[in-house]
């Protein structure tokens, strides 16, 4: 999924490993400290810094699609 396809209220997050492995996550905007798949957001958002354009975490994509397609 392209980052530009995310609906309002969601953003991409990824650490350096996610950038290298094309597995950036989806996070809900606000005061949350983890992604949709419960991966902690403890580092800088390297996916944003490196301008990653694709979200690749299969679990985040599944959860996002289930929530947004109801």
Spell out the key features of this protein.
single chain, 70 residues, alpha+beta, two-stranded antiparallel ribbon, 3 helices, 2 strands, globular
Describe the structure.
- The chain is an alpha+beta fold and 70 residues long.
- The protein has one domain (3-68).
- The chain is built from 3 helices and 2 strands, in the order E-H-E-H-H.
- The chain has helices spanning 16-21, 46-49, 58-68, and strands at 10-13, 25-28.
- Strands 1-2 form a two-stranded antiparallel ribbon.
- The relative contact order is 0.28.
How would you concisely characterize the structure shown here?
The chain has 70 residues and is of the alpha+beta class. The chain is built from 3 helices and 2 strands; from the N terminus they run βαβαα.
Q: Please outline the major beta sheet.
A: 2 strands, antiparallel
Overall structural class, as computed from helix and strand content, comes to alpha+beta
**Average pLDDT:** 93
Query: Which word captures the global form?
Result: globular
Distance between the termini: 18 Å
Number of strand segments? 2
Number of helices: 3
Helix content: 25-40%
The whole-angstrom Rg is 11 Å
> Regions with pLDDT < 50 over 5+ consecutive residues?
none
SSE order, one letter for each helix or strand:
EHEHH
